[in-house]
Automatic annotation (TrEMBL):
Entry-linked Pfam families: PrlF_antitoxin
Residue spans crossing the bilayer: none
Gene3D superfamilies, sorted: 2.10.260.10
Lineage: Bacteria, Pseudomonadati, Pseudomonadota, Gammaproteobacteria, Alteromonadales
Organism, as annotated: Alishewanella jeotgali KCTC 22429
Gene Ontology biological process: regulation of cell growth
Annotated signal peptide: none
Gene Ontology MF: a single term: toxin sequestering activity
Protein name: Putative regulator PrlF
InterPro entries reported for this sequence: PrlF_antitoxin (IPR031848), SpoVT-AbrB_sf (IPR037914)
Length: 134
C-alpha cells in the first residue's frame, strides 16, 4: 500500500458512503498527515500512517523520492532471502513429499540433547551485530 502526501484531505468515514460513480474521485485523494523532525532528524510516524501501512514496532519503511520532489512512503518488504537457504529448504520440501516414510518424530532424548546444547545461551535478536559477526 502506498500513501502519497497530497494537499487534499478527506475523512475516512465519507469513503464508505460513496456511490460507485464517485469511487474514481477517492483514488485521487489521500489522507494528509505531518510530523516534526527532532534535532537528530527523527520523527514519530503518525498513527493514521501506521494504520494505513499496517506498521508495527520494528517494521521498516521505504521512501521513494519522485522526480517532482514528492515522496512515496510504503511498508518495506522485509523478506530478505538467502538463495542458498531457499534452495536447501526447497530440496527438503520436495524430498519430504517424495519420501514421507523417512520422516520420524523428534524423540525425547533428541529434544534433551538439543536443550543441553543451548542451556545458558542468551540471544538478543534486536541487538546489533558486532563487526566480526557482520
Amino acid at each position: 500500500m502506498r500513501l502519497h502526501y497530497l494537499r487534499v484531505a478527506t475523512k475516512l468515514a465519507v469513503i464508505n458512503q460513496l456511490q460507485p460513480a464517485e469511487s474514481i474521485m477517492v483514488t485521487q485523494m489521500a489522507l494528509e498527515a505531518e510530523s516534526t523532525l527532532t534535532d537528530r532528524f527523527q520523527t514519530t510516524v503518525p498513527s493514521s500512517v501506521r494504520q494505513a501501512l499496517h506498521l508495527d514496532k520494528k517494521d521498516k519503511i521505504k521512501y521513494i523520492i519522485q522526480s517532482d520532489g514528492s515522496v512515496l512512503m510504503q511498508r518495506a518488504d522485509t523478506a530478505d532471502t538467502d538463495p542458498v537457504l531457499d534452495q536447501f529448504l526447497s530440496f527438503l520440501a520436495v524430498d519430504m513429499q517424495k519420501h514421507p516414510e523417512k520422516l520420524q518424530p523428534l524423540s525425547a532424548s533428541m529434544r534433551q540433547s538439543v536443550a543441553s546444547l543451548v542451556t545458558g545461551v542468551e540471544v538478543d535478536l534486536d541487538a546489533a551485530l558486532s563487526d566480526e559477526d557482520e
